[in-house]
Amino acid sequence: MVMFKIIRVETTPFEGQKPGTSGLRKKVKVFIQPHYLQNFVQATFNALGADRVKGATLVVSGDGRYYSKDAIQIITKMAAANGVRRVWIGQNGLLSTPAVSAVVRERVGADGSKATGAFILTASHNPGGPHEDFGIKYNMENGGPAPEGITNKIYENTTTLKDYLIAEGLPDVDISTTGVSSFEGPEGKFDVDVFDSTSDYLKLLKSIFDFPSIQKLLSSPNFSFCYDALHGVAGVHAKRIFVAELGANESSLVNCVPKEDFGGGHPDPNLTYAKELVARMGLSTTHSEPNPPEFGAAADGDGDRNMILGKRFFVTPSDSVAIIAANAVQAIPYFSGGLKGVARSMPTSAALDVVAKHLNLKFFEVPTGWKFFGNLMDAGMCSICGEESFGTGSDHIREKDGIWAVLAWLSILAYKNKDNLGGGNLVTVEDIVRQHWATYGRHYYTRYDYENVDVGAAKELMAHLVKLQSSLDEVNKIIKGIHSDSDVSSVVHADEFEYKDPVDGSVSKHQGIRYLFEDGSRLVFRLSGTGSEGATIRLYIEQYEKDSSKIGRDSQEALAPLVEVALKLSKMQEYTGRSAPTVIT
Ligand code: G6P
Ligand code: ZN
């Protein structure tokens, strides 16, 4: 057996190693500086403490972006030196973020071991490659991101770190072949287990959904399907789940071979970045597609986000979670006993609220960030949740889950079409959404993103909006000055969103600036917490329409008066110098 030694390497702190809940994200050129990754990993081990590190079983994998392979070898050697007992690596280092969460919660090693935590190597939907982003985050034994107490400790440690431990004499592991390799160190045995990336995740999904009924839908001659992984890690899972298990045609997969640079693209599933899928689905303004598939979906780099499309039809993420919640009990076996509760992030539209009210479900509005859902789920208070930022999921894991969302939609389609398969007219994605609007009303919704804005200017704009909140008379005067007619109602309340976690009592302040209108419309302004350059201002615009004769309008057209109000109130162009947003979804 190969014997390794533990060596202590002297180092000095790097500035700016503060992880958010989505981990530490920086340009690759920052990460590849000598000791940079090592410092962060040692700071994490030190923050976790010997209890959680000695004898631990750690998952190490990610979305396969550039620098992942080197990072996996470094982390493995440091884990060995810090007394970790086993490292589990998905084949080729590939596991989507939801698959990591599933593996941590569900996988049992050949020797009966269970994972105690995970390093996920991803910068999510940010581009990858030598000149783009890399990222690392730590997830706990519940399969969810480390809480702030731990991430703060990690950061503190990075500011004082003097040395780190690494194994010497431990060879690089071959991560392309499954199997267990055993090594011997001064503190005993150390195993590296390279395992199939999809098996455990698939097993969990099979216990949630009715695979045979989805298979029937996918093989029906009047149904067609398309999935775009944007060259992220979801492609690996998609091949196995949609093609091998559910019988979809191989040609229905687009960009499903993971690439270190995501093919040069921006692996974010929205109408701007998922260009190929958008064209295939007949939604491109420059290309006409004669016969788009009935259903299309896309994922981000690490497979936790999703975009759902019908033939020539976009489903907003806010509608998507509401529709899944409204149909889950009938269409998805895992929920047949009822829903414990539902939740959305604050900027997400109130479509889910209306469903919760109709179905008499517990409902929570939380700040942006999946960790807030995790707390509710651990406490058994929430079954389904979603965010406007293309994240949807349930309490089967503690991350959002892109493929879960696709399977949820396919389940609803299979349920609604159980008598239509084999031929005849299908109930389409668009039919389901329109039917939902007819029952619950429609929340017209759009988001304007201003990316890479000057940080100072963005802060000034936000400060201006907060100041304006102190005089609603002034606000309503500005609105009346733009729209003397009744296109836009009056603001009745304005604040900065604050949340008290019902589980641990913690309070989160300054979670977005809200202007709430008399007719239920909302304007929300937030600064993004996930960008890596400059500031990104997000403007969320929403208007509720109950009148079924008015629910069929084009959303940009319906929202135009409210958009105008938002831009004038915020003095968007004045502060940012931008006459148009970077992305509209
Ligand atoms: C990550 C989190 C999501 C959150 C999103 C917000 O993806 O996992 O829970 O909604 O970031 O991003 P933003 O850029 O708007 O802060
Ligand atoms: Zn992601």
Give an overview of the whole structure.
This is Phosphoglucomutase, cytoplasmic. The protein is α/β, with parallel strands linked by helices and 585 residues long. It contains 19 helices and 27 strands. Strands 1-9-10-5-4-6-7-3 form an 8-stranded mixed β-sheet, with helices on both faces. The protein has a 6-stranded antiparallel β-sheet with strand order 21-24-25-26-20-27. A 5-stranded mixed β-sheet has the order 12-11-13-14-15. It starts with a strand and ends with a strand. It binds 6-O-phosphono-alpha-D-glucopyranose (G6P) and zinc ion.
Binned, the helix content reads 25-40%
Radius of gyration: 24 Å
Proportion in β-strands = 15-25%
The geometry reads as globular
| Distinct bound molecules | 6-O-phosphono-alpha-D-glucopyranose, zinc ion
Unreliable residue stretches: none
Tally of alpha and pi helices = 19
Notable features of this structure?
585 residues; alpha/beta; 6-stranded antiparallel sheet; 34% helix; binds zinc ion; Phosphoglucomutase, cytoplasmic
Condensed summary:
This protein is an alpha/beta fold. It has 19 helices and 27 strands.
Topology:
Layout: E1 2-3, E2 5-10, E3 24-27, H1 28-31, H2 36-48, H3 50-53, E4 57-62, H4 68-81, E5 86-90, H5 97-106, E6 117-121, E7 133-139, H6 148-160, E8 163-168, E9 179-185, E10 188-195, H7 199-206, H8 211-219, E11 225-228, H9 234-245, E12 253-254, H10 275-280, E13 295-299, E14 306-310, E15 313-315, H11 317-331, E16 342-345, H12 351-358, E17 363-366, H13 371-378, E18 384-387, E19 391-394, H14 402-416, H15 429-440, E20 442-453, H16 455-468, H17 472-482, E21 491-496, E22 499-500, E23 507-508, E24 513-517, E25 522-527, E26 535-545, H18 555-570, H19 572-576, E27 583-584
The protein binds 6-O-phosphono-alpha-D-glucopyranose and zinc ion (ZN).
6-O-phosphono-alpha-D-glucopyranose (G6P) is lined by residues 22, 124, 345, 368-370, 387, 389, 391, 528-530, 538.
